[in-house]
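Sorry to interrupt, but I need a hand with the structure work. It will help me judge whether the discrete encoding reads sensibly. Write everything out right here, beneath this request:
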Amino acid sequence: MSFRMLPTLENLNLWKPKIMSFRNCIMCGDEEKENLNHLSSCKKLEKTWKEIENFTIKLIWITTEDKLQKDYKIQDLKKLLFGTSHKEAIKTRCLYMRGLFDRLIFNQLKQVFTRRKHISEIINATTFSIQECFYQLVWRERCEKVIE
């Protein structure tokens, strides 16, 4: 699925303004346009996003080599992949949903793992997990609300 072309309310309003005149977030009801950036920062979805991040971290943690688990704590991995602030977490959510990875995070992974294969596996697992969880936990609920 191309996340750039998701039929968010903002996109639907651009593509078919006669059919979809409403473009504000249906999840929180705020006067915010519903787009991918807003869905990654929507206050109503914050708890769900924390669950997605924690699931992704646990998935990466159990599939990484022993070196990471021996030398680092799971909290270190979370800080590395999602940052230390809410603003950083929102930024990384947006990137991962689009299948992108921050260069700074990539460089930090290179310091931990010497084999590019391991870095590639972490990047792929992270983006896949975020995208799949977004679809299952956020997008489906959002679509149900749009249909109502």
Remarks:
- The mean pLDDT is 84.
